[in-house]
Amino acid sequence: MTYKIYAPNIHLFAFHLRNLSSSDSQADTDYDSKLLWHKYDQICAKFQIQQKLDLRDVAEGSRIALLKGATKDNILLPLEGKLSLNHGKRIKITGQACPLQIYDSYALGLNIRIPEVENNQKTEDVDLTVFKDFNPDQCFLPSNINSSLGQILLLTAWLPQKQQQDSHVWKEIADQCVQNFLGENDQDNCPPLYQEGQLFGSPIFEYGIPDQSQDYGKIFVWLFLGEDINGNYAARAEENFCWFYQYFIDLFFDRQKVIKAYQISREVYSDAYQGYQDIKQIINETIDHRLEACATTQSQDNQRSLSDDDLLEFKKKLRILPKLDLNYSDWLRQLESYSLTMKINAHNYSEKLQQIKAKLPKDEDLSFLSVFEHKISPTYQNQIQINLSYFAHSSALLDKAISSIRGIVEIEQAERDRALEKALRDKEEADRARDKQAEKQEKRLQLWITFVGTGLAVSGISSQTDAKQPLEAILIELDRKGSLDCPEAGFYPCLSYSVVFVVFHILIGVGVGAIAAFILDRIINRRSK
After folding, report:
1. Is the pTM here over 0.85, yes or no?
2. Residue in 159, 172, 169, 155 with CA at minimum distance from that of residue 222
3. Do residues 127 and 2 touch, judged by C-beta distance below 8 A?
4. What is the pLDDT of residue 495?
């Protein structure tokens, strides 16, 4: 069944960071801080809207209207254009644009609608399939806008009196509004309904899971009730929405900041979890390797030891682990940063909601808006705190494990250094002993050379002297008949003279050589000391 609606509206609330952080900029070097204003021009071209945004440059950090000439009471740019319907008819549309800077981000509130009154005449009811014509080429969807903080789409329409009386059809009407806006003919492709309720006395529906990024984004459908029996429309829902339009922009901005921070934190969580698994795997492999090495290798002092290959492998992993640990610590820092962002913007959301409540009657029900404050945001914050607690505990364990591996390597290296030092000392001692032995052998050789050389030299010199008379006197004393005259005295005395002569000179050489060797030995010993 197709339903009629009156004065349908499209409200786009898009939010975009003015500047990305340095880490994000590395991932997206083509970041366009003016993206929202470019998208505004593209959307306006599809509806023949001629009004351009004339913006002023302002310093970052404040909440301020960006239209030149904007005042406290006038920050909206009125719009006029044409809506081309499926059957070829073109009807007049109006709207408004509200470009803002909200602290570190840009915000664009853009409204396009079929006016309630034209030429002082109430406009006609239209089939709700008109929402399909409000979204040519899917120009309002996130896939086209692609703002860094996301967006919220709000579809509003008045319900004729007939539909106001039957609350059972409200959800069906809301479903059809979303279906037509998205260009889906199959009801099964309609985004899931997240919550429904009442806001300022009119039914409102939220489609799409808040923290899930879908092609359709976040869509609200707000059906105004207020037609009287005379066909006049007057709903406090629309009046309050217009009155609190700026508050709604802030509410949606804070909401998107919380949701975006949570979405990114889930990505960081995945990275941190994978990083933790990688570090854990390396540590487990190292421990297993250590146990295996200890089971197969035993040092001389009966202590477990690593092989050279095992030690090199341990050192290699020690070079890898600090980098992984640094990345892991950076992910934890990011989680803490996003947790803080969520807390700040959740607090801002609550404050803004309290300001709205303060301006309304005490019995006004804002429970639909409070769901985010009391249910959605706390759930996100609790989840990120659980993640931080888990990873913080894991980080402490990883630090201890890395320290243990480093200790094993340092101890093993120290033992090897001591063993190498001992080996060097032993080698030096062996070399000194070998040098000492060689020195002794050289000394012995010198003594022998001195002994023999001196003896031969003295013997040679002594043999050249005339030793006949002394020898003869000795021989005569021993043998009165002996004579040294040869050959007249006979052969025997001559022979005796020759033998004694030689022996005598040899003994002289031996004695002198021994004395010389003794003196040389004393000199060498004195120098060596």
Report:
1. no
2. 155
3. yes
4. 46
